[in-house]
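Deliverable D2.4 — example input (structure tokens):
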């Protein structure tokens, strides 16, 4: 059985985003291949209903699916939102989100909450304890309703994880290794 993951960057990021490059190496140590994407809308406003971003993820997923048995979607921040939207429509074997910006201050995102709450695949959300864009109360409420969601809180970290980034990456890699078996 072969395993692979599509990696999606945070807003404005590319396939070369440092957290994604580190994640590629960490996943490889578990025998999980990966393909990081750069959204075609990078540097512009997201496309209407995120159609372009979802197509970018589908294309990368389909390339991996041609050669691998088990496929995960992994997204950092905005990329996590996009992966969650695609996973809600077309469930992968697993979904992991690093820092879900599910409810920025004064900007609730009901579509994000609905997508995550209705998730039908094993899902990991690694969230900084002090992530101002993704309040733990919102994520904890959703995780209580959906038993497929594992929520890991990185103590002392904000949205960017900072010095705790390697801990967040290790959580995702270990979880995927176990989940994609």
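Example output (designed residues):
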């Amino acid at each position: 059985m072969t395993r692979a993951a599509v990696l999606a960057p945070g807003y404005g990021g590319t396939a070369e985003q440092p957290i994604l490059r580190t994640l590629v190496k960490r996943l490889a140590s578990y025998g999980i291949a990966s393909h990081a994407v750069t959204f075609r809308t990078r540097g512009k406003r997201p496309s209407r209903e995120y159609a372009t971003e979802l197509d970018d993820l589908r294309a990368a997923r389909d390339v991996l699916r041609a050669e691998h048995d088990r496929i995960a979607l992994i997204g950092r921040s905005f990329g996590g939102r996009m992966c969650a939207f695609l996973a809600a429509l077309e469930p992968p074997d697993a979904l992991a989100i690093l820092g879900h910006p599910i409810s920025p201050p004064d900007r609730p995102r009901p579509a994000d909450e609905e997508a995550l709450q209705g998730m039908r695949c094993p899902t990991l959300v690694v969230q900084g304890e002090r992530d101002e864009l993704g309040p733990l109360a919102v994520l904890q409420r959703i995780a209580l309703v959906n038993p497929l969601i594992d929520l890991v809180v990185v103590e002392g970290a904000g949205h960017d994880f900072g010095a705790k980034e390697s801990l967040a990456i290790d959580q995702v890699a270990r979880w995927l290794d176990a989940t994609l078996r």
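Strands lie at 3-8, 32-36, 70-76, 94-98, 123-128, 149-154.
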